[in-house]
Amino acid sequence: MPRYLSLIRIDENSAPAEGPSEELMRRMGELIEEITKAGVMLDTAGLTPTAQGTRVHWEGGRISVTDGPFTESKEVIGGYAIMQCKDKAEALEWTKRFLRVHEEFWTVTCEVREIAEG
Predict the structure, then answer these.
(1) What is the pTM of this model?
(2) Cβ partners under 8 Å of residue 68, min gap 6
């Protein structure tokens, strides 16, 4: 069965400074448990804020390193999920369910892509 990567993009500027609510974390935990029991979820995690990140860039034969925060970034990768699904339609259905557990004030986009195998 194919594997899919869901890149979870968030708007750090509109996300609550205190992070996700307890209620959101409870709903997310329940959904992750359901996805895992269904044999779909292979791995998932959230990421620390961009303020704690570092970008390494290659251009013109040179490497540059920039520490966060990255003020020019509006939408950043806030987490990921790796799922094994029968097809892309199934991966999209699980992703939609993940998005629906968020409160309405969150701005979250998931980019779902099949993982290229060997």
Answers:
(1) 0.86
(2) 49, 50, 51, 52, 53, 54, 55
